[in-house]
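User: Here's a chain of 276 residues. Predict its fold as tokens.
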Amino acid sequence: MTTWLITGCSTGLGRALAEGVLAHGDNAVVTARNATAVKDLTDRYPDTALAAALDVTDDTQVSAAVTAAEERFGAVDVLVNNAGYGYRAAVEEGEDGPVQLLFDTHVFGTVRTIKAVLPGMRARRSGTIINISSIGARMSPAGSGYYSAVKAAIEALTLSLRREVGPLGITAMTVEPGAFRTDFAGRSLTQSGTPIADYAETAGKRRKENDTVHGTQNGDPAKAAAALIKVVESGDAPYLLPLGTDAAVVVRSALDALQGDIEEWDHVTRSTDFAD
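Assistant: Prediction complete.
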């Protein structure tokens, strides 16, 4: 039986994935900063669900969650780094404390959990690590520079990790969800408290009070969960998996635009070599 450790299970995609994994018959270590938020899952699945309090910015809690998983189920077969939240601000508006916490949660929190599970995965020569990114890493819209940056960092980290652990029988992959009907644009969205008027028509249009998509997103979290389970069971997970039709469109458009820039400026690119 496969054992999953999923961060950020109180709501959203993490919650949907935990429910999907448990309904599928697998074991799941379901985590949240407040473990009571996932107690209903352990009540419904007492034999296969383990709740753990986990703030991914806390080294001690990360270590304790992985230890608890190994003691209860023997191993962590699949790690899903899902914990996180949104942050909107123009780059100039970004406040040091919130920005540092954003990076600590998304980037260094992901590193903490990866480091905690890898010794066991290496010993078994098997395992899957799934890092949840966002189409923000591809789009980088005005007002989401910091959030896009943490997700881009996760994607680059994952690609190197994939090349390092692949020969050891371990898979690392990145998931880029589009807009899913979760509370991401609601409770889970934060923003700078000091807006600058000059950015009202750019970053300002993405401020929380101007968001009109919350509750109307096209993505179904339950279907995303089913897709991830299918990919893990395939044994052939890709490096990058967009989820949602909007994600597919964004990724292809971004790649096309990048290719266009590279071709247009190729003569300048090549002009910087030493002449033969």
